[in-house]
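Submission checklist for the structure archive. All mandatory fields must be present; incomplete records are returned to the submitter.

[x] Identifier: Acetylserotonin O-methyltransferase dimerisation domain-containing protein
[x] Organism: marine metagenome
[x] Residue count: 193
[x] Sequence attached
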Amino acid sequence: MLSYRDIINKIDQLEESNILICSLELKVFSVLKKKSLSAHQIANITKTKVEGIEVLLRALTSMGALKFNKDLYRNTSITYKYFCESSPDFKRGTVMLKLDGREEYSNLLQTIQKGRDLKKFDDSDDPKFRTLFTYAMHERSDLYAKKIADLVTQNTIGKLIDIGAGSGSYSAAILDKDKNATATLMDRAAAIK
């Protein structure tokens, strides 16, 4: 059961989440790359007000998402690696999913009160969204696939049917552990490409 303090802490975390999501929307980490820039420079590039971007940059610095030295802001090794578009390790799918999720959660009250318009999902397959969604699933499975494979392969697998498999990263991790197992991936053709 969540305590009063737990509930307040969860609500407080929303503030930090909004700061991070806002920085992703403005592409602050991508603007910085591996450079050190002033708030004025970042404001010019992001087409924002200096006063506003300064508040955001200070908040990011206090959270440990940016470094600050002599009026210049810089990415940390983590924010550059995973959240800067020019990084080879940029988590493009995860970023898209988190930004998309923000819109979902921002409209949560309205959705609960009035329902959701499902017509926008009828017969639609947005290749750009699907590609980024697949990246996000890969990026997320990197965190869990080995652990799941370790658990699942405690017993002999034999044949595995992976429904909603997408690219099959969980099945691949299982097959790496159990060389005698086989897997059949099942998903929409567009998702398996």
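[x] Structure attached
Curator remark: The radius of gyration is 21 Å. Residues 127-152 form the longest helix (26 residues).
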